[in-house]
């Protein structure tokens, strides 16, 4: 049983069982890439959180972690960076924990979306050998990957709060603030924030963080999969025959098919992005009497802005 993940979210199958053998190396590469994101994003945010929570015990390493806050925000868009600053500036340990935890999750979300899109391309190129559609297959692979790294979340929470050491799993006694608002749902109480819970209760709280991680990333994957499948359905010719993608002598997909799949997915991504801009534009219009350039600027500061300039967003958000 994975520490930090409730039983109902446990992995019950092997990801290799639904992947043709010759695709395993490519999928292993994508899985390593996501694990590296856990390491890199996790270490940087964990060290920053610990330094923020233990300012009175600062050493050179902790000072460097605090100084690195600006670099951490370069991973995320303007809106996420502002939320991070607002939480840290509240000054409570629960707000600090939430700020760094969500910064960690945002970095993982960006990586899993990239991995998912690569999986869709692979699945589309080899769709004749899959038991489900490329989108369902890619979604299942991505969710398996998310859950398989859930134990990193428990490790992160423990060592974002306390010094890194060799304590055995299941013996950690968590400070109460990890479940206080805004990190959790319990009212914040400064006097008891650093009081410790027993190991059993602490383990249950770690499972809550693991659950939050899984549900957050899986929701992002489901939304991405849905938009991708929708745009694909809109653009796929109705009369296109289902021709075999592989010859009997080879398991290698023809290069034109792979290129076509990539072109199609780029179109889908673009249309899905425009649709998100249009939806956000309609939401923002609830605040009337603002020029369109203002709405476009607001969208540019969000993750859905994708780094595009205001003029491009303004052009497509009203179509």
Textual characterization of the structure:
By secondary structure, this protein is mostly helical. It contains eleven helices and no strands. It has two domains: about 220 residues, no CATH class; about 60 residues. It is globular. About 35% of the residues are buried. The N and C termini lie far apart (about 50 Å).
Number of strands: 0
The shape is: globular
> Given the helix and strand composition, which structural class is it?
mainly alpha
Chain-averaged pLDDT? 81
List low-confidence stretches: 239-258
The value of Rg in angstroms is: 22 Å
Q: Tell me the span between the first and last alpha carbons.
A: 50 Å
Order of helices and strands: HHHHHHHHHHH
Number of helices: 11
The description of the largest β-sheet is: none
Strand content: under 5%
Number of domains: 2
Percent helix, as a range, is 55-70%
List its traits.
319 residues; 2 domains; mainly alpha; globular; 62% helix; 11 helices
Topology record:
Elements: H1 24-53, H2 60-67, H3 69-73, H4 78-90, H5 93-125, H6 134-148, H7 151-161, H8 199-235, H9 255-284, H10 292-300, H11 310-317
Helix pairs in contact: 1-2, 1-5, 1-7, 4-5, 5-6, 5-8, 5-9, 6-8, 7-8, 8-9, 10-11
In brief, what are we looking at here?
The protein has 319 residues and is mainly alpha-helical. The protein has eleven helices and no strands.
């Amino acid at each position: 049983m994975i520490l930090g993940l409730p039983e109902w979210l446990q992995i019950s199958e092997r990801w290799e069982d639904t992947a043709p053998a010759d695709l395993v190396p490519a999928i292993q590469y994508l899985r390593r890439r996501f694990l590296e994101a856990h390491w890199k994003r996790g270490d940087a945010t964990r060290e920053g959180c610990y330094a923020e929570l233990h300012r009175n015990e600062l050493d050179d390493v902790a000072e460097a972690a605090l100084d690195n806050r600006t670099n951490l925000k370069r991973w995320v868009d303007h809106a996420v960076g502002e939320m991070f600053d607002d939480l840290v500036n509240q000054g409570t340990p629960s707000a600090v924990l939430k700020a760094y935890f969500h910064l960690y999750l945002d970095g993982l979300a960006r990586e899993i979306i990239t991995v998912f899109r690569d999986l869709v391309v692979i699945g589309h190129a080899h769709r004749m050998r899959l038991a489900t559609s490329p989108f369902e297959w890619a979604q299942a692979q991505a969710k398996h990957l998310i859950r398989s790294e859930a134990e990193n979340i428990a490790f992160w929470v423990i060592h974002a709060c306390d010094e890194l050491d060799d304590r055995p799993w299941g013996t950690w006694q968590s400070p109460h603030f990890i479940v206080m608002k805004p990190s959790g749902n319990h009212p914040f109480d400064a006097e008891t924030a650093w009081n410790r819970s027993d190991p059993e209760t602490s383990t249950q709280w770690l499972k809550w963080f693991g659950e939050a991680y899984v549900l957050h990333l899986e929701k992002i994957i489901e939304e991405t999969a849905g938009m991708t499948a929708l745009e694909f359905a809109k653009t796929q010719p109705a009369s296109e025959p289902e021709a075999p993608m592989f010859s009997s002598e080879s398991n290698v997909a023809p290069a034109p098919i792979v290129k076509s799949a990539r072109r199609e997915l780029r179109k889908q991504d673009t249309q899905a992005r425009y649709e998100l801009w249009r939806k956000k534009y309609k939401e923002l219009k609830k605040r009337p009497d603002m020029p369109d350039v203002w709405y476009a600027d607001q969208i540019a500061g969000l993750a859905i802005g994708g780094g595009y300039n205001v003029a491009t967003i303004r052009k497509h958000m009203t179509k």
